[in-house]
Design a protein that fits this description.
This protein is mainly α. The protein is about 85% helix and about 0% strand. This is Stress induced hydrophobic peptide.
Length: about 50
Amino acid sequence: MDIVRIIIAILLPPLGVFLQVGLGKQFWINVLLTLLGYIPGIVHAIWVIAKY
């Protein structure tokens, strides 16, 4: 299941984080990072999926 979440995180980082942790602090951090730059959003999403 993590492979699917990682693929989703590459395509749409906030969705990958949402599927892993829900609407918490990590989700909003990822939305902000994705708006500031797509690559930081991807890196953060993959980190969240690997950590949780």
